[in-house]
Automatic annotation (TrEMBL):
Amino-acid positions noted as binding Mg(2+) 1 in the UniProt annotation, renumbered to this chain: T44, D45, D120
Binding site for Mg(2+) 4: D28, T43, D73
Ranges for domain PurM-like N-terminal: 26-135
Positions annotated to bind substrate: H52, E260, F316
Binding site for Mg(2+) 3: D28, D73, D209
Function recorded in the entry: Catalyzes the ATP-dependent phosphorylation of thiamine-monophosphate (TMP) to form thiamine-pyrophosphate (TPP), the active form of vitamin B1.
Protein name: Thiamine-monophosphate kinase
């Protein structure tokens, strides 16, 4: 199967057919009808075999994950996902693999109301790159640079499950049978908090998604906002699977530095905390307050209750 036959068969109609796509897959470029009074948000993520996934991983799960991790970046900025571009590098065309990958890509793009509008296919060591685009009302995008002293720090969901799922796949950690499905689902099939991200536009002062671990990621907000933070690790939300499978030290390491949670980390001014409680009720997403923003720029203080919590690990970095 050649490049163009592969595109036509598996990727020409992927995701939701959007009315604001004038020209999609098949031309030299896509033509998109961007709405008046909206800003366009663009993000890119790459998944490389041996770094982000194993060679024998389920290709359907890879298709899902590639979309979800990109859409999670849009969710963190309060954007509505719209269009996707795919750069696919394969050593050979394995039609069974491509078919399953495309199925995962399509069903997840459709779930988030996105349309695949183009990209590139090449031969080489396997890597999967996606560019995701979204729209947000003009001037309403959430960023990492708005946190202020006194703001409260929140995270959605539970942290550390995906990292435990990775360790389970690697045979580095045992997980009881009753928790294995949940843990593997969190690792292979992450969810993007799109609806909640859009709802936070008028409440959160800063936001980002958690991809490299809370300990590492929160410092991006501190650096961009010129503030510090005090985090009570005892308040970090942990699933029952983590609690049943790990001692406290391991659980904290997974939650703080494990990565790939794709939950939202955001800050809220004290005056808007009441609005947050009202806002959350329709979404069914657990949100936990884990600390506050402080005034010493770049300083991250970790404590466990009233005690200092010494910590040595960092989150994932490609060139660290």
């Amino acid at each position: 199967m050649g490049e163009f036959e592969l595109i036509a068969q598996y990727f020409s109609k992927c995701g939701t057919a959007r009315s604001d796509t004038a020209v999609g897959v098949g031309d030299d470029g896509a033509v998109l009808q961007v709405r008046d009074n909206y800003d366009l948000v663009v993000t890119t993520d790459t998944m490389v075999v041996g770094t982000h996934f194993f060679p024998d991983d389920d290709p359907r799960a890879l298709g899902h994950k590639l979309v979800a991790v990109n859409v999670s970046d849009l969710a963190a900025m309060g954007a509505e996902p719209t269009w996707l571009s795919l750069a696919l590098t394969l050593p050979v065309v394995d039609e069974a693999w491509v078919s399953a990958f495309a199925a995962g890509l399509h069903e997840t793009a459709e779930y988030y109301n996105c349309q695949l509008i183009g990209g590139d296919t090449t031969r080489g060591p396997m890597s999967l790159t996606m560019i995701a685009k979204g729209i947000v009302p003009r001037g309403k995008a959430l960023t990492r640079s708005g946190a202020k002293v006194g703001d409260y720090i929140y995270v959605t969901g539970t942290l550390g499950d995906a990292a435990l799922g990775l360790q389970l796949c690697q045979g580095r950690h045992d997980v009881s049978k009753k928790h294995q499905t949940h843990i593997l689902q969190r690792f292979h099939y992450p969810s993007a908090r799109v609806a909640l991200g859009q709802a936070l536009r008028n409440i959160a002062s800063s936001a980002m998604d958690l991809s490299d671990g809370l300990y590492s990621d929160i410092q991006h907000i501190l650096a961009r906002s010129g503030v510090g933070a005090s985090v009570d690790v005892a308040r970090i939300p942990l699933s029952q699977a983590i609690k049943d499978s790990c001692d406290t030290a391991t659980a904290m390491q997974l939650a703080l530095s494990g990565g790939e949670d794709y939950e939202l980390l955001f800050t809220v001014p004290e005056a808007k905390r009441g609005s947050l409680d009202v806002l959350l009720s329709p979404y069914g997403v657990a949100v936990s307050c884990i600390g506050r923003i402080t005034g010493v720029a770049g300083k991250l203080e970790l404590k466990y209750g009233e005690q200092a919590f010494p910590y040595q690990h960092t989150g994932f970095t490609h060139f660290g």
